[in-house]
Amino acid sequence: MDFKSELKKRAIDAEEIIKKYxxxxxxxxxxxxxxxxxxxxxxxxxxxxxxxxxxxxxxxxCNNNAIPFAAAIEMxxxxxxxxxxxxxxxxxxxxxxxxxxxxxxxxxMAILAGDALLNFAYEIMLKESIGKENPERYLKATxxxxxGAGIYGxxxxxxxxxxxxxxxxxxxxxxxxxxxxxAAMMVGCMRAGASVGGATKEQMDYITDYAQKIGLAxxxxxxxxxxxxxxxxxxxxxGSDIENNxxxxxxxxxxxxxxxIAKSLIEDAKKSISKVTDDTEFLHGLADYILSRDH
Amino acid sequence: MDFKSELKKRAIDAEEIIKKYxxxxxxxxxxxxxxxxxxxxxxxxxxxxxxxxxxxxxxxxCNNNAIPFAAAIEMxxxxxxxxxxxxxxxxxxxxxxxxxxxxxxxxxMAILAGDALLNFAYEIMLKESIGKENPERYLKATxxxxxGAGIYGxxxxxxxxxxxxxxxxxxxxxxxxxxxxxAAMMVGCMRAGASVGGATKEQMDYITDYAQKIGLAxxxxxxxxxxxxxxxxxxxxxGSDIENNxxxxxxxxxxxxxxxIAKSLIEDAKKSISKVTDDTEFLHGLADYILSRDH
Lengths: 295, 295
What we know:
Oligomer: homodimer
Order of helices and strands of chain A: HHHHEEHHHHHHHHHHH
Number of helices of chain A: 15
């Protein structure tokens, strides 16, 4: 497997799935669909749907049942970005080189578009689960997403992140932010994919460990790239963490130690996923990619 | 049945249920729980949980299985109020006589608290449904809520409402707003309650008709009260629709015609619910109450 071209292929597959589930732009409320689809179509790595689909595939041999979940999870990720970019939060004008949602549609519509995407994600997961065999698996899968996205997951992480601006925080608190703001949704989407695939309790535990570790490593690498990254490759301004006096892995532990921790998390993640299946080529490749990525 | 004291009793029951499901205020992310609970505790008629529980009871004889849904639906209602009150939307400082969420916790936290309540509602419904008999019913019930809350329901109505400020709109569009902003969630919560209660297709249709009609009547009465209501009883400023040049039932059709339409909707709603059960005392009383309420 040439990992990079495989990843590209899977991102294209994920794009197709997301497109298929995007709401039609019609009716009196047409503008909200336009606002949702504007942000849904603005690219990104599509890492979360890829993880959802792969978690299902490694336990079940195919990923068909996870398809609506892949679309839904990207909608939840997109809602979180729209709300994060709002003037009251990060106040960002640009996201992936395009104007942010509120810059195009106004603040009121951006707030509602975020709300709409979060809710639409559940609408899709639930609607597509009705009438399937093993309904219990789908209830569990949707719950995994809800848990990952909520106050004991992503929103919890966002809150503490917002409150920690311009303050030096201890490593435990930084870990809480990283583990919840980023890793919790990766855990949620892999557990959801594995759940619809019918994973055993043991498989679920190892998949969870893999997701947690690549999620935390992903965020540590993000912190590192904000110092040593190439603005052109990243498509965003670097150095903002230092400018904003933000506590990060490198600011608390130094660059070298941060790299070591990320590397060790990736090695452990690979070991965990090897306990689920021998068919680990893609997920090992993905773990290595997260460590070595330059954007 | 003395309807008013029965309604009061049921509102107290609903309060207890909501309280039971409120998140504990603890952890690094404690502030978000405080913000959620602040708005969840600010009173209100608790009409939606009451409807959820009653829809289950009339088809199943008890409402136990609908309890988590009753709590969840009030969380969704509360999230919609928090976001509606934001400066970018209605910019309200007061809600039910208390400072609005963003006035107390700031805009960033109010946005996140709304997001958190919407997501937490799903977390509760899904978590509490796992392991129950008839999981399919719970999937359907949760889907009903999602549909009622989303772009083909409440959010759709909010969007068109926001876009229709200061413009004269035709009655069809006003009906779209009323039916979606308000009635869709009443339909969603009654369908959810009926679904966990195991309603037949026919029962579901009549319950839907009842909910749609009392929902629309509720909103028409709201329009009327904004003209003839007593500020002290309503706990809010009256006349804002005229000040904001808002199209309403009375502005389009006059007060008398609006009252007639509301009355006829209520009569039809009562007929529909009588086709589901003979045990209609509460829901007939509620329909009459919606018509005659002065707050």
